[in-house]
Amino acid sequence: MLVDLPPVPSPSLAEEIEKFTRIREAAAIITRPNYDWSDMKNKLSNLADESNGHSAEAVVKAERKGSLSKGRGVVGLIRDSLHTSNPSIRSFRLTGNQEGSKKEITVSSEKHQARAFYDSNTSDSPGEVDAKMFTAARRLVEERPTEGFTYTDAE
Description:
The chain is of the alpha+beta class. It has two domains: 11-113, no CATH class; 115-155. It is built from four helices and four strands, in the order αβαβαββα. It has a four-stranded antiparallel sheet with strand order 2-1-3-4. Residues 147-155 have low confidence and may be disordered.
């Protein structure tokens, strides 16, 4: 069994995406299997499946001096993935111009990940360390802003 959990994005990621006035390029890496496939992601997933691959990457570039749509296509899928409990988009990057800047920048999901920390003592048993780690991880997931998602224990 392969378990591939996508990172939890930090709130700063959505804020950085909103600052774009022009998006020249967007790239998204999706993993399979996953449960929020749209038509575009199905095409990439099928390509990965037919190739016996685990992931696929899509890179979309705007026309010269143009901009990609922020609400549709690959950027729309990226933005939607920020509020999905189990997104198929593993990582992404957007390159373009933000408000007040003439220089292009790249915003990536890898640089904007939420983190969880826990305190552990050297005297803790392995079971205590595991319990603290899982509690911190669960808190991180539960604090993630999602729409229409309810966490339940799978037993």
